[in-house]
């Protein structure tokens, strides 16, 4: 028997979890459950992360977690428990299969059958934000080499293990050449290791438009965290109902499975919620545990139930459905259909599957790192870039001259345009032609300080193996 942690969560959580557990029991899944409490009640009883320490111990012991949705209280500085769980447990991969149930559930995209693989730990979700000046705020976008390697390799391994033909990468590397550029570059490095899988790349904006328009052209799509967050909700929605899809969050040591939807407080306690999202999450969990035969049985029983026209209210239509079922009645129908094969949908074939094993990324040998200068960020409420530009040019040392000033990334000095709108936040680049030592950075900061220049932050300019690790100014 495998022990799995479960949490019934908030809103419709207890109803859909009870329905799912009844199906797992009826299908003889060789699993025992340890229940923990998370969510609203825990937040409100003083655990600001929505979970108490004993519950962490259970999660750590069992390593596998089947989780119903929770309600995050509005305001009050409460942090999202979902984000905390993903990051604390190192769940770097969020996998969301999106497939419609056409013709039994209405969708504009009857042939869509794609899987979004979203990086789950970094990008703008590092949550490192600062207000730097009265007018300007900042959120750091962190993309790491090991983070990219893990998720991209996971996408290809997933494709291979699930008989998928193609992996597509989405990034915005035409604009973010260093961060998204790294994601795309590592995709291009890893793709040739999988000659049996096709690969391609889209800039995320046109890629998202194509997914919304013709999702059937995609198979497995891998992308950084924020794009994945947005696009996986779109694909969930256009496949039929947010109540249908399950997702997995996979790490090196832990895994968490949940429906993609939230706690739906508007329909809680009425026995009308669709449990299919959590049922499909449980199927993903069984596959992950190498219990493909049980997963297959439940998935096929779900298909048979939907084919037979037994539908919960969210997918009920008078033309396509035969019976409007409550949450409990729907799960009873799935139980009655265990052992049957679908007649319209292709039969799920999940038996014999193995858990994916992704190697830990290895640290590369240290590149040659040379310090070439420093970007000094300055708070200055003036308007004319030439005033601050001339002042900083005059105070710079000869061997570390001021090379440019940008305002929100646009070059405004030297030779800016009068029309460019400027805020109170100025990025002043001091750059040498030859490598410098850190003393030079301290020296320029000292000169700024003595001249009453209000420095708010610095960013070093490095070359890595002779390649600039910093972007140019727009218009430079
Ligand atoms: P939601 O997904 O809970 O609900 C959106 C709409 O879809 C509602 O009309 C709801 O009735 C319907 N719906 C959702 N699941 C359904 C199901 N299984 N069957 C039938 N209808 C269903 O999104 P929301 O209203 O924006 O968020 C409600 C709460 O859930 C918030 O507190 C939010 O923070 C939380 N949330 C939690 C998670 C999670 O725990 N993973 C995810 C998203 C949102």
Summarize the structure.
With 476 residues, the protein is α/β, with parallel strands linked by helices. It contains 13 helices and 20 strands.
Report on the structure:
This protein folds into three domains: 1-107 and 239-353, Isopropylmalate Dehydrogenase (3-Layer(aba) Sandwich); 110-228, Rossmann fold, CATH 3.40.50; 369-468, Alpha-Beta Plaits (2-Layer Sandwich), CATH 3.30.70.1570. It starts with a strand and ends in an 8-residue tail after the last strand. The strands form four sheets. It has a ten-stranded mixed sheet, with helices on both faces. The longest helix has 17 residues, at 145-161. Helix 1 (13-26) packs across helix 9 (276-288), helix 5 crosses helix 6 and helix 9 runs antiparallel to helix 10 (292-307). The protein contains 13 helices and 20 strands. With 476 residues, it is α/β, with parallel strands linked by helices. The model has no long low-confidence stretch (mean pLDDT 94). Strand 1 (2-7), helix 1 and strand 2 (31-36) form a beta-alpha-beta unit. It is elongated and about 80 Å long. Residues 12, 69-72, 82, 242-243, 258, 261-267, 273-274, 277, 314 line the site of nicotinamide-adenine-dinucleotide.
Classified by CATH, the class of the largest domain is Alpha Beta
Which regions contain 5 or more consecutive residues with pLDDT less than 50?
A: none
- Report the β-strand fraction as a percent range: 15-25%
Q: At CATH's second level, what is the architecture of the largest domain?
A: 3-Layer(aba) Sandwich
Secondary structure tally, helices: 13
Number of strands: 20
Radius of gyration from CA coordinates: 26 Å
The best one-word shape is elongated
Average pLDDT, all residues: 94
At the fold tier of CATH, the topology name of the largest domain is: Isopropylmalate Dehydrogenase
Q: Give the cofactors and ligands.
A: nicotinamide-adenine-dinucleotide
Distance between the termini: 63 Å
């Amino acid at each position: 028997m495998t022990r799995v942690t479960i949490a019934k969560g908030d809103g419709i959580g207890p109803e859909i979890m009870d329905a799912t557990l009844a199906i797992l029991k009826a299908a003889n899944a060789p699993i025992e459950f340890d229940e923990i409490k998370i969510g609203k009640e825990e937040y409100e009883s003083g655990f600001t992360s929505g979970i108490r320490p004993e519950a962490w111990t259970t999660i750590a012991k069992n390593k596998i977690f089947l989780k119903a949705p929770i309600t995050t209280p509005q305001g009050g500085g409460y942090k999202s428990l979902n984000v905390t769980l993903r990051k604390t447990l190192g769940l770097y991969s969020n996998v969301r299969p999106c497939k419609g149930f056409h013709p039994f559930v209405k969708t504009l995209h009857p042939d869509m059958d794609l899987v979004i693989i979203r990086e789950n730990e970094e990008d703008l979700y590092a949550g490192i934000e600062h207000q730097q000046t009265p007018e300007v705020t900042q959120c750091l976008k962190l993309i790491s080499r090991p983070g990219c390697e893990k998720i991209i390799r996971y996408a290809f391994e997933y494709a291979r293990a699930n008989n998928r033909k193609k992996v597509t990468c989405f990034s915005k590397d035409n604009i973010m050449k260093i961060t998204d550029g790294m994601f795309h570059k590592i995709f291009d490095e890893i793709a040739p290791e999988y000659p049996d899988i096709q690969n391609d790349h889209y800039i995320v904006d046109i890629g998202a438009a194509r997914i919304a328009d013709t999702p059937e052209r995609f198979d497995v799509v891998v992308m950084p965290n924020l794009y994945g967050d947005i696009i996986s909700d779109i694909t969930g929605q256009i496949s039929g109902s947010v109540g249908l899809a399950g997702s997995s969050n996979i790490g090196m040591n832990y895994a968490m499975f949940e429906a993609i939807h939230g706690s739906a407080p508007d329909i809680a306690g009425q026995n009308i919620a669709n449990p299919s999202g959590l049922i499909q999450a449980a199927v993903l969990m069984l596959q992950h545990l190498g219990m493909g035969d049980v997963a297959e049985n439940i998935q096929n029983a779900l298909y048979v139930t939907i084919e037979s026209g037994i539908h919960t209210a969210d997918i009920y239509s008078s033309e396509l459905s035969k019976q409007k079922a409550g949450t409990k009645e729907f799960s009873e129908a799935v139980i009655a259909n265990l052992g049957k094969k679908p007649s319209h949908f292709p039969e799920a074939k999940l038996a014999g599957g193995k858990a994916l094993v992704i190697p830990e990324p290895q640290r590369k040998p240290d590149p040659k790192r040379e310090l070439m200068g420093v970007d000094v960020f300055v708070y200055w409420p003036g308007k004319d870039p030439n005033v601050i530009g001339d002042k900083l040019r005059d105070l710079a040392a000869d061997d570390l001259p001021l090379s440019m000033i940008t305002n929100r990334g646009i070059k405004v000095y030297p030779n800016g345009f009068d029309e460019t709108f400027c805020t109170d936040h100025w990025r002043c680049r001091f750059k040498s032609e030859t490598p410098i030592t850190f003393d030079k950075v301290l020296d320029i900061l000292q000169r700024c300080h003595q001249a009453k220049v209000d420095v708010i932050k610095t960013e070093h300019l490095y070359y890595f193996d002779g390649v600039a690790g910093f972007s140019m100014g727009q218009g430079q």
